[in-house]
């Protein structure tokens, strides 16, 4: 545990909740987050918390901008990769594409020399879609995962469950995902900022993958170059097989098309529901005035009809127009009370207003019906 008193300005600035030096602040926060591997069941119990104490509050600096990933986030991934690189150019594992799991093997066609062997390395990687309409997630789930990916998205490296820097930082795209996407996004599907997960090194299994003396990254020796070459080849080939716009297998594209259609239909329903809700709310507001106008017009017609009927010399043609107008108003009675949309549940306040309107309308009908029969 470290207790820091009278910290230097660089540390104080981390606790300031304004947008000044935000990039520098996020660089530090993303470097300190995920200190031990959060994507695996905990085998090392180390809690990394940086409590900031001010006069008004206490909070954890590392979670002040948003929580880091957990293993359960893999369940929300639209694509999930789980397998192992064998250190010789091969990969064997499973790929979950939406809700369908497939076995997947890959072999890099590079030369295999004993000097390039880097040992087995497991990978677990989740990947989220760029658009909500292409995801199986709910609106809330999608927004939550997107917020995490915006802050912490990337491919992390852990050695014996401890994070190896700088991997995982937003500017540490050591496999050049974004560089390839900038050339042809339709071919190179994977984006560094939409992924979250890790490559798991171990000192015993991967002794030739060595930290630089600065502790920032791995030394670019023969084994490291073979490792990077294998992982890049794996992602490029996987994208060509399943995720490119002209992929060899149509599983992902077919499922994505189906989900797009379902979500677009759902959004259309939501738009209709919203329009109906707005119309219903407006009708509740305008109802009293509509009823008042209807009642005034109805009573005026009845009064005029009485005057005509009291005239001995009246002819039917003279009252026909009045009777037609009264009949129209009779038909409008049912439409006076606002209709509740099928896809919308009124609030308790709105229900109460509806009951009052119905009661008022019934009283009005009882009031005018005897006059109509007269």
Structure in words:
- The longest helix has 59 residues, at 251-309.
- This protein has a seven-stranded mixed beta sheet with strand order 5-4-3-6-9-7-8, covered by helices on one side. A two-stranded antiparallel ribbon has the order 1-2.
- 44% of the residues lie in helices and 14% in strands.
- The protein folds into two domains: 1-249, no CATH class; 264-373.
- The model has no long low-confidence stretch (mean pLDDT 85).
- The protein is an alpha+beta fold.
Individual helix count:
8
Taking the sheet with the most strands, its summary is: 7 strands, mixed
Gap between N and C termini, in Å? 94 Å
- What proportion strand? 5-15%
Low-confidence stretches: none
Q: Helix proportion of residues, in percent? A: 40-55%
Strand order of the largest sheet: 5-4-3-6-9-7-8
How many distinct domains? 2
Structural class: alpha+beta
Average pLDDT taken over every residue: 85
- By DSSP, the count of extended strands is 9
Overall 3D geometry?
elongated
What gyration radius follows from the Cα positions, in whole Å? 34 Å
Task: Give me the strand/helix succession.
Answer: HHEEEEEEHEEHEHHHH
């Amino acid at each position: 545990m470290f207790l820091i008193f009278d910290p230097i300005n660089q540390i104080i600035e981390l606790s300031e909740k304004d947008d000044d030096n935000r990039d520098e602040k996020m660089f530090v926060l993303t470097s300190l987050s995920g200190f031990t591997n959060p994507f695996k069941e905990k085998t090392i119990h180390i809690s990394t918390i940086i409590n900031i104490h001010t006069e008004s509050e206490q909070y954890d600096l590392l979670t002040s901008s948003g929580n880091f990933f957990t293993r359960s986030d893999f369940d929300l991934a639209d694509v999930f990769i789980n397998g192992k690189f064998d250190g010789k150019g091969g990969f064997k594992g499973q790929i979950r594409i939406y809700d369908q799991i497939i076995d997947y093997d890959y072999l890099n066609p590079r030369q295999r020399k004993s000097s390039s062997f880097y040992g087995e390395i497991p990978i677990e990687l989740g990947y989220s879609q760029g658009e909500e309409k292409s995801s199986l997630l709910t609106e809330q789930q999608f927004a939550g995962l997107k917020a995490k990916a915006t802050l912490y998205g990337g491919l992390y490296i852990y050695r014996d469950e401890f994070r190896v820097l700088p991997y995982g930082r937003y500017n540490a795209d050591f496999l050049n995902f974004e560089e390839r996407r900038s050339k042809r996004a339709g071919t190179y599907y994977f984006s560094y900022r939409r992924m979250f997960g890790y490559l798991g090194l171990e000192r015993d299994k991967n002794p030739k993958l060595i930290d630089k003396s600065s502790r920032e990254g791995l030394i670019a020796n023969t084994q490291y170059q073979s490792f990077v070459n294998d992982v890049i080849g794996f992602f490029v080939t996987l994208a060509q097989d399943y995720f490119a716009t002209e992929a060899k297998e149509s599983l992902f594209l077919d499922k994505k098309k189906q989900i797009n259609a379902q979500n677009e239909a759902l959004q259309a329903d939501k738009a209709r529901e919203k329009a109906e809700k707005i119309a219903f709310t407006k009708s509740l507001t305008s109802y009293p005035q509509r009823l008042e106008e209807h009642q005034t017009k109805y009573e005026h017609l009845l009064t005029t009809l009485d005057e005509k009927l009291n005239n001995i010399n009246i002819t039917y043609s003279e009252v026909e127009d009045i009777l037609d107008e009264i009949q129209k108003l009779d038909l409008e009675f049912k439409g006076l009370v606002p209709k509740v949309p099928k896809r919308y549940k009124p609030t308790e306040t709105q229900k109460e207003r509806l009951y009052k309107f119905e009661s008022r309308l019934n009283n009005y009908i009882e009031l005018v019906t005897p006059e109509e029969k007269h």
